[in-house]
């Protein structure tokens, strides 16, 4: 991976996030700017933390901006366009491998499985993975968690994604669903609620879950520069405490209750779709029930990266994962 993608996107992300104020709100809460890699019901606990007043309860005013892509999210964090990023932990390894003086660390895990689904066009017979051979597969960005897990699952089913498929992975993350809807590809890997909406509109059919197929993996976590975590330790602890409380809230409430809670963040998504999506994620244990990113999960992440040929170097868990905030949260 090259560091140049960070430089290229610097100005773009700065323009998106530059208007975010660092000033302390008048109500005395601490402002925290979060850049999320995409906007999805997959991140329900994050939105619950806002809608149920959990962040506010912990003295935080959290502002979320969608940056649409792991590279853009990391750029936002590195350029101080955001205090915290919500993204796949693999991005921290890429930056560390380039010799970063101020490493970016994962400090609170949000999801623990892949959140994408395989959508097929004109699927009229029972699905099996061999049906993908020789077909055009619209995948995700190379080096990102969705693509890596996708390749890991395909390999597990005896499919070489670079030899047995016509693999397309040069379409910008935000445009993948539109490309598929316009006729590109026979299969596509999509997040929710996009996958379910496409199915409801008759544009495709969900035939498999990459989350169920790949098992437990630290898919999405909150990251921040080491310097930010040191200078703002109290804020990081409050943030992690709130995330843990939100994760517990999601774990103990029904899909319908969660969908209604986060509805203001998904005004264009019908409530029945939201309920269906959240229930699907809950049933496959996608939502973390605590924010601790364990060492075995970290090692599994690197195994998946290695399988995809994008692991620049193996990095010990202790170097890029800071668990002290999450451990303190769960002890309360």
UniProtKB/TrEMBL annotation:
Keywords of the record, alphabetical order, are: Signal
Signal peptide range equals none
Q: What is its main location?
A: periplasm
Q: Please verify whether the record's keywords include Signal.
A: yes
Q: What Pfam family is a match, any one?
A: NMT1_2
Annotated compartments = Periplasm
Spell out the PROSITE patterns in the cross-references.
PROKAR_LIPOPROTEIN (PS51257)
Q: Which residues cross the membrane?
A: none
**Top-level taxonomic group:** Bacteria
The entry sums up its family as follows: Belongs to the bacterial solute-binding protein SsuA/TauA family.
Q: What is this protein called?
A: ABC transporter substrate-binding protein
What organism does the record attribute this protein to?
Gottfriedia luciferensis
């Amino acid at each position: 991976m090259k560091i140049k993608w960070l430089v290229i996107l610097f100005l773009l992300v700065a323009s998106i996030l530059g208007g975010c104020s660092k000033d302390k709100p008048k109500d005395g809460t601490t402002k925290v700017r979060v850049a999320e890699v995409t906007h999805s019901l997959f991140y329900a606990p994050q939105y619950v933390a806002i809608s149920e007043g959990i962040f506010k309860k912990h003295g935080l005013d959290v502002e979320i901006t969608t940056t649409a892509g792991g590279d853009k999210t990391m750029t936002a964090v590195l350029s101080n366009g955001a205090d915290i990023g919500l993204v796949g932990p693999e991005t921290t390894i890429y930056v560390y491998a380039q010799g970063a003086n101020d490493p970016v660390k994962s400090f609170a895990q949000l999801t623990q499985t892949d959140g994408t689904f395989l959508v097929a066009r004109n699927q009229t017979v029972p699905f099996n993975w061999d049906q993908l051979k020789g077909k055009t597969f619209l995948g995700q960005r190379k080096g990102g968690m969705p693509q890596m897990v996708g390749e890991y699952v395909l390999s597990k089913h005896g499919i070489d994604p670079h030899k047995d498929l016509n693999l397309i992975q040069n379409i910008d993350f935000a445009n993948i669903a539109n490309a598929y809807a316009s006729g590109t590809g026979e299969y596509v890997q999509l997040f929710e609620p996009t996958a379910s909406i496409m199915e409801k509109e008759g544009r495709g059919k969900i035939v498999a879950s990459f989350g169920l197929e790949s098992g437990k993996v630290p898919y999405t976590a909150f990251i921040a520069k080491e310097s930010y975590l040191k200078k703002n330790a109290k804020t990081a602890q409050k943030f992690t405490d709130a995330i843990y409380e939100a994760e517990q809230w999601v774990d103990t409430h029904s899909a319908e209750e969660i969908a209604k809670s986060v509805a203001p963040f998904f005004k264009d998504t019908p409530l029945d779709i939201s309920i269906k999506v959240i229930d699907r994620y809950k049933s496959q244990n996608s939502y973390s029930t605590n924010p601790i990113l364990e060492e075995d999960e970290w090692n599994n992440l690197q195994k998946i990266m290695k399988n995809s040929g994008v692991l620049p170097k193996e990095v010990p868990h202790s170097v890029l994962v800071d668990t002290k905030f999450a451990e303190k949260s769960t002890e309360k």
